[in-house]
Design goal:
77% helix, 2 strands, mainly alpha, globular, MetI-like fold, two-stranded parallel sheet
Length: 554
């Protein structure tokens, strides 16, 4: 007993490669965010007073209006659809539970291109109106402006409302059916049961979904750029690329980080409160009521609106152009963009998942407090917009690249060029930081399901920490690791702003090809790449639907 405490203290103070590695990975993930703050506080050319007196208030105001409007509309569509499919049975209600998830497969910027192509002057809607009513020019009739803030709100709401739908549906399912029976017995009608019973209990989950929607809205670049809406994210691109002022862009990025931090706090607070308790194990589930006649078809129509606007319209328009321009599928530039996308997304998925497993395992092995504190902090990268990460990665890496190139040239007389920023390295690093939270969450949850007796038995039989990870944890975690690899890969394929800022010269991915071709009004050339991006997104939605269906099958 006398020697035990000194031995334990010595073991804790000894340098553990797993804890050191976990700490190094955490620092690497957080470094871009810290770099943004450092550049913002120490700019070469301080234009903060100019930003405050000119563009920053406008960026803030537009971003706030956009985020709040999208949050309200997404909450209305997602919560309403979730209430209907959980509490009622009507035509196609079971199918709609999964169809309403499909808009998640459509990047918002693809939805923006489809909406403009469908509603613009030369599009099918206005063309049909002119033919039917005999109008000759746009002066003969009024049509709402397509490239506007309102259109951006509609597109983003349709693309992001499934986040609220998922959270609200889970909350409504967990509620007790007896509560609604009591409410009906007391004379509460359908709206009263929703407003006074269901909504208050589901409010924390809905708030969490709304917070995610607002974070995604603040982070968006492709949609608002196409609709010419000036937000904080577009301001980063404008100040950096057009005004050539990295410090000013970092200062705007700092404001974005502050906004996102507040939204993350809201989301964490909502999740912390989202608890639902039943009185007994045999808590009665909600028994859906059957809607017949016109009320049932009205419920079907209401649920079809977000599905049609968020999935059918984009897929229909983009699919039409992809078929009409079939020769574009053989374009060497498309094939090159596809190969680049598979390369960087595949590398990012492997690096991210391996780093997450190493870090989570290292934190579990160490008794130190700092790695355990840093573990949840590393999830902040997922909330940071790609444009913010672009600044935090490109500027430090460019400086390091130049130092390395000068050193190699001084030692060997050969100029190697820019090794990191001149290759896909920076893109892979950005994807790793951006989506580390996905892999980390999957690894942490999977390791938590491993019985402690298994690794203890392996260690008692002489296995090292690395051997225990390979022989015990990895085989058991194989399913979760595969899912994390796929999810990181899919999100990397769709990532746009970070790729635009960090890609080398003449290095296109599917996302950047879609953005550039659509920006030049070449929707036919953008369509094949957009279809490929959508197809990858559908894989992720299929995985999500599969995991969601397991609890419901109980």
């Amino acid at each position: 007993m006398i020697d035990k405490k000194p031995h334990t203290a010595a073991r804790r103070t000894r340098m553990n490669p797993w804890s050191v590695g976990a700490f190094a990975i955490a620092v690497l993930v957080l470094a871009p965010l810290l770099a943004v703050l450092w550049i913002a506080l120490n700019p070469v050319d301080n234009i903060w007073p100019h930003l405050l007196s000119t563009t920053l208030p406008r960026y803030l105001r537009t971003t706030a209006v956009l985020a709040v409007s999208v949050a309200v509309l997404s909450a209305a569509m997602g919560t309403g659809a979730a209430w209907l499919v959980v509490m009622y049975r009507f035509p196609f209600s079971r199918m709609l539970q999964w169809l309403l998830l499909l808009p998640l497969a459509i990047p918002a910027y693809v939805g923006a291109y489809a909406l403009v192509d469908f509603l613009e002057y030369a599009g099918p809607v206005q063309t049909t109106l002119r033919q039917v009513f005999g109008w000759q020019t746009s002066r003969d009739y009024w049509f709402p402006e397509i490239r506007s803030l309102g259109s951006a709100i509609l597109v983003l709401s349709a693309a992001l409302s499934p986040y609220v739908f998922l959270m609200a549906r889970a909350a409504f399912r967990e509620q007790s059916g007896s509560i609604y029976e009591v409410a009906r017995a007391l004379g509460a009608g359908p709206f009263a049961r929703f407003w006074r019973v269901g909504l208050p209990m589901a409010r924390p989950a809905i708030a969490a979904g709304v917070a995610i929607v607002m974070m995604e809205t603040v982070s968006d670049f492709g949609t608002v750029s196409y609709f010419a809406v000036q937000t904080l994210t577009t301001g980063i691109f404008t100040v950096w690329l057009e005004l050539n002022n990295a410090g000013g862009a970092a200062q705007i990025a700092g404001v974005v980080l502050l906004v996102v931090g507040l939204l993350v706090g809201l989301e964490k607070l909502s999740r912390g409160r989202a608890r639902f308790h039943g009185n007994t194990r045999q808590q009665r589930k909600v028994v859906p009521m059957t809607l017949t006649g016109w009320t049932g078809w009205l419920a079907t129509a209401l649920c079809l609106v977000p599905f049609a606007f968020g999935f059918v319209l984009p897929v229909g328009v983009i699919g039409y152009h992809a078929v009409k321009n079939a020769r574009q599928w053989a374009d060497p530039a498309l094939l090159e963009a596809l190969l680049n996308t598979l390369t960087v997304a595949g590398l990012a998925a492997i690096v991210t998942v391996c780093a997450a497993i190493f870090m989570v395992y290292g934190v579990r092995l160490t008794g130190r407090r700092l790695p355990r504190v840093l573990l949840p902090v590393t999830t902040l990268g997922y909330a940071a917009p790609g444009a913010v990460l672009g600044i935090g990665i490109l500027i430090p890496l460019a400086a390091l690249d130049n130092i390395i190139a000068d050193a190699i040239e001084a030692l060997f007389g050969v100029d190697p060029g820019l090794l990191m920023t001149g290759s896909a390295f920076a893109i892979v690093l950005a994807y790793t930081v951006r989506f580390f939270a996905i892999a980390q969450g999957a690894a942490d949850a999977a390791m938590g399901r491993v019985a402690p007796s298994l690794p203890m038995a392996a260690r008692s039989l002489g296995k090292t920490a690395g051997g225990t990870l390979r022989r015990i944890y990895v085989p058991i975690m194989r399913g979760s690791v595969g899912t994390a690899l796929l999810l990181v890969f899919v999100d990397s394929v769709k990532e746009l702003p970070a790729t635009l800022l960090l890609r080398p010269f003449n290095y296109d991915t599917l996302a950047t090809r879609v953005f550039e071709k659509a920006g030049l009004e070449q929707i036919g050339q953008a369509a094949p790449a957009a279809i490929l991006v959508i197809s990858v997104g559908l894989i992720a939605v299929g995985l999500m639907a599969r995991s969601e269906s397991r609890p419901s099958a109980e």
